[in-house]
Specification:
40% helix, TIM Barrel, 308 residues
Amino acid sequence: MERLIRFPELVKDPVLVEQFVAQMTDYELARLSIGGQTGWGIEDNGYAGTLFNEEALDKYEIPDYFFADGNNGLNMFEVNIGFPVSTTVCASFNEELSYAEGAAIAREAKDMNLHCLLAPALNLQRNPLCGRHTEYFSEDPFLAGRMAGQESRGFEESGISSCMKHFFANNAETMRNTNHSIMSERTARELYLAAFETAFEVNKPDTVMTGYNAANGAYCSNDEELLRGILREEFGFTGYVMTDWNGYGDEGMAAPLAAGVSWLAPGSPDDTLVTPIEAALKSGDLSRARVQKNLVDLIKVVLKYREA
């Protein structure tokens, strides 16, 4: 029987990450790909969620890894500083200010034992139907990207992972799980994708969240060309991709993982959502190698911020 590799060994020897993931059963790969909650907020503290169902994966000694929203302060029950919203900061045209805000929010996040902030939110303020414009920076992709990139850099250089969202063209809150953003290739490339590309030139975040919406025929969380072609191959992203809360698309639980999503949020404490993924792995409909690669990307980020 081969020796079990546990998470604490990875801290000492990160090259074991691929072996760590490869030793897992189909069930464990499926369980690790899904969060352990059913909604928003856990343990009466306001955390948005945690990556892992500890009980199911206890033998691997994977530590807690907590999230919260944090565009302009922490969405937590504990009192913390309310900073100016992204639109206000962006109106200053001051990149150093955006960086400083990110760094200050991250310092508070570390004090509250957080590891990842679900921010910055980076869409463009071009559609009046969008209900989250105060979270976004600007209608201009260059300005929005520069300012979001600096806030993201402020988070990560202060020891907190940045989850840039919602990738991409997330333009409405009404029926947001079924909203469909249809645009020309030029509009997509020169506006909505350009904002993220510009932000990545400032700071490549370690986490990206997909939008609820579909864009030009495919849900963002199910779109392999978007997540593996554009995000990774063109933009050089090397972290992990997560969904928005219950934003799994319309092709079943395995489809986002096949497209390159590492983690489905918020998941479920039981195996309701795990079972179809395990079945897809066993049948070969979902590539085990693809899921392993997704989880290697995820565990590398967890290692980085558990040590920060």
